[in-house]
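Running co-folding for FE2/S2 (inorganic) cluster.
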Amino acid sequence: MAQTEYVQTQIQQMVQRALAHASAGTTDSTDEIYRLPVESYSPKSWEEEMNAIFRRLPLMLALSCELPEPGCYKAMKVLDVPVLIVRGEDMRLRAFINACTHRGRAVTQTHDEKGKLKAFSCPYHAWRFATDGRLLTIADQRKFGELDKSLLGLRELHCEERVGFVWVCITRGIRFDIDDYLGDMQKELAGLEADKWFLHGTSRLESANWKITHDGYLESYHIPFLHRNTLYEFWNRESSTSVSLYDHFGPLPCGPHQRMGGNAWGNDPALMLKMKDVPPSEYTDKHFHAVRTLFPHISISADKHGGLVSQMFPVAPDRCITIQNHVNPRNPATESPEDTEAMKKRIALYAKIVYDEDYVSSFSIQEGLKSGANTELLFGRNEGGAINFHKSVAHYVQAYRDDKAAGRV
Ligand code: FES
């Protein structure tokens, strides 16, 4: 099926499902309430999740638009692994452990920077590495001694680029099949046309445990309450959170990747009636909104006109860092001053709302879990996205335990 046909079919299905739910006063619903023991947020569970998930699965670490040209690089730390992603002269993206093969210093100045270079010169003793990782020169090699440079390139990590997104596994030696891992989510992502996006700005936000943080991106049940004076107000005229559609994509019965959709014609019954007169062939992405999540740590609230891509990075059992990336197909270099100003305001606004409302709540939930008040957390039948996420976590943790028991890790 051609991409445009796929997108149009999905839009028609989403709008029809949303209309049926809105008429009946229902929403997508799971068979039962899901119960998750509080211990699954403990430091011990966190360690196991990092080994089972973040060190073994492909992580979406960059957008293609961050690395548009040969020599563009991004240095970052993921857990305790310094990662360097760089586009080579052949336009291929590669990822490396950002540690010089002389004595291990990062070959960039810091572990958190972006730039463009013809080669990396290690700041410590100036060994030089090509953008494809090869060791080019050893400073003062005659005095240093003989070495086989071909064995001393930067240590490579498996990296794949698809439809405007870049995945890396942070453990050396682990390979992955990104097409298999994404399944039909790749078609969903292709519909975003992210390869035409530009990055307009980022924010960095701190929150509590990564799963508490992620939970907030996986259901719209909380929107009219936690965000009643902000997002709910902004969206209410154009969209409703009363109907939520949950779909999953990928190799597991629960995803692990997801699309959460909602109707976009408002809570106004008159508007809904009008919507019923629109023939399905005329439904567009203006008639529904969707948030897509890429397991384990990405939320994409965007369409082909742009939006927000949030990357969540666990750093400790009770801490997670989110990078909010604001993207759209307009080149910021040629935008009007008014558009630039509007984007600045949008970036500040979304950082404030997500921190003040979602992430302040995440710290409060963390305290609530520690308090001993509850033995389990409850996820309702209307919170199918969060349920699929926790089932996916459980799946990968169990697979890791099985591999460990069988001596495969
Ligand atoms: S540690 Fe890089 S050149 Fe010495």
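Result summary
The domain at 3-55+185-405 is CATH 3.90.380.10 (Naphthalene 1,2-dioxygenase Alpha Subunit; Chain A, domain 1).
Residues 100, 102-103, 105, 122, 124-125, 127 surround FE2/S2 (inorganic) cluster (CB under 6 Å).
Job closed.
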